[in-house]
Design brief:
This protein is α/β, with parallel strands linked by helices and 441 residues long. It folds into 2 domains: 3-86 and 234-431, Aminopeptidase (3-Layer(aba) Sandwich), CATH 3.40.630.10; 88-217, Aminopeptidase i, Domain 2, CATH 2.30.250. 28% of the residues lie in helices and 26% in strands. It has 12 helices and 20 strands. The chain has a 9-stranded mixed beta sheet with strand order 1-2-3-13-4-14-18-16-17, sandwiched between helices. A 5-stranded mixed beta sheet has the order 11-12-20-19-15. A hairpin with a 6-residue loop joins strand 19 and strand 20 (413-416). Helix 10 crosses helix 12 (417-432). The model has no long low-confidence stretch (mean pLDDT 96). Bound molecules: zinc ion (ZN). Zinc ion is lined by residues 83, 237-238, 269, 315-316.
Length: 441
């Protein structure tokens, strides 16, 4: 498959997945097509060597895995981690309010979005809703309203003369509510909004109980640039990494290597990962321990398996922006279409260390893929990923990598077409490694 078709698949995946709950649903569909079997955490698992499985926790984190035929205690887990959530706006519980002839929805800021990018976009909502159906049974269902429904219009420049000098500043309480409609005289805002949700959910939604609803941009992803060498969409951070990992896993040649492979995609990375389904919770540990039981491991075998394990923590990296040279360390500029970025931070904001870097470089070289190294400016606070958290919890070595991205946390991010295919190739090499990845001390 050429680079553009791989990215077109990614854009289709993102456009079908406007909330973390939809991301998990899209991942499930891909896994089912490859014969993966869904497991329920509350039931007894009967795992078979060679089997393909996945498990979902609370609808928005998903771990898929393949049990290799090789002895786990001697080969370990080969793990790729990424996150399903993106920063943005979430609909509050008592969201609808009427003000001066307008019906608006109140939102809460989720994580650290660039708020100004949410203005003047064709916004809508997606997520999950719980309701009582016509038989008084509680139902939890995904909801995605496909058409532009909401808007955050900018203030005209005539009332905001300094906007181009001072930037667009939005007061998080007063200036973020989204316009939904005009307010008719006899309209009660909250019932108006819940009946709109009921309509979208279908005839059986008798009474809405609660929701997790994200605001998303209905504009589809696109290629751009003189040679279509770039692409743009929402949520590239971090659905591009989830998609790359999934493409690497769902490859019959990779699966034939009989390694024990794991893709762990977590919600809540953008808000610190501490939750029952976040990377700082017990989800991955619980699943790995249950996988180990299938190998009739005894005593120290699980610890031995972890010592042979390795994780690629995949999350997007900051591509060099030529208009803002002072924002970057001049000796660590990473650029579009020049390969995956190895992220290094001495204070362990990234899990990378010299040995795990060297291993990743080895896979790049085997896959004939270029690579780049990134270090943040010392006078700017560095972001982090699930890498340090997960490798600390499991005690396994890891590397933080990701593809170059412009406008991280904008509602419309951009990346390079070649890099997506490069990342998939390296991840396939990693999954296909025959040897244990234990560090020889
Ligand atoms: Zn991210």
């Amino acid at each position: 498959m050429n680079a553009h078709s791989q990215v077109q698949n990614l854009l289709d995946f993102i456009d079908a997945s406007p909330s973390p709950w939809h991301v998990v649903s899209s991942v499930e569909q891909e896994l089912l097509a490859f014969g993966f079997v869904k497991l329920n955490e509350a039931e007894k698992w009967q795992l078979q060597l060679g089997g393909r499985y996945y498990v979902v926790r609370d609808g928005s984190s998903i771990i898929s895995f393949v049990l290799g035929q090789k002895p786990l205690a001697e080969t370990g887990f080969k793990i790729i981690g990424a996150h399903t959530d993106s920063p943005g706006l979430r609909i509050k519980p008592n969201a609808a309010n009427g003000l001066e002839g307008s019906l608006r929805l109140a939102v809460e800021v989720y994580g650290g979005p660039i708020l100004a990018t949410f203005t003047d976009r064709d916004l809508s909502i997606a997520g999950r809703v719980s309701f009582k159906d016509t038989n008084n049974v509680t139902v939890n269902r995904l909801l995605k309203i496909d058409r532009p429904l909401l808007r955050l219009p900018n203030l005209a420049i005539h009332m905001n003369r300094t906007v181009n000098d001072e930037g667009l500043k939005l007061h998080k309480q007063n200036e973020l509510p989204l316009i939904l409609s005009v307010l008719a005289e006899d309209c009660l805002p909250q019932p108006f909004f819940t009946s709109l949700l009921q309509e979208q959910l279908g005839g059986d939604a008798e009474r809405i109980l609660s929701w997790d609803l994200a605001v998303y941009d209905t504009q589809k992803g696109t290629f751009w640039g003189a040679d279509n060498e770039f692409y743009a969409d929402s949520q590239l951070d971090n659905l591009a990494s989830c998609h790359a990992a999934l493409c690497a896993l769902l490859d019959e040649a990779v699966l034939a290597n009989e390694n024990t492979l794991v893709c762990a995609f977590f919600d809540h990375e953008e808000i610190g990962s501490t939750s029952n389904k976040g990377a700082d919770g017990g989800f991955l540990t619980d699943v790995l321990q249950r996988i180990a039981l299938a190998y009739v491991t005894q005593g120290e075998d699980y610890s031995r398996a972890l010592a042979h394990s390795f994780m690629i923590s995949a999350d997007m990296a900051h591509a060099y922006h030529p208009n803002f040279p002072l924002a970057y360390d001049p000796d660590h500029k990473v650029t579009m279409n020049n390969g995956p970025v190895i992220k290094v931070n001495a204070n362990n904001r990234y899990s990378t260390e010299s040995v795990s870097q060297a291993q990743f470089i080895g896979w790049c070289e085997q896959a004939d893929v270029p690579y780049q190294k990134y270090s943040h400016r010392n006078d700017l606070a560095c972001g982090s990923t699930i890498g340090p958290i997960t490798s600390a919890r499991l005690g396994i070595s890891a590397v933080d990598v990701g593809n170059p991205l412009w406008a991280m946390h904008s509602i419309r991010e951009s990346a390079g077409v070649q890099d997506h295919g490069y990342m998939i190739r390296v991840m396939k090499k990693f999954f296909g490694q025959f040897a244990s990845l234990a560090i020889m001390n």
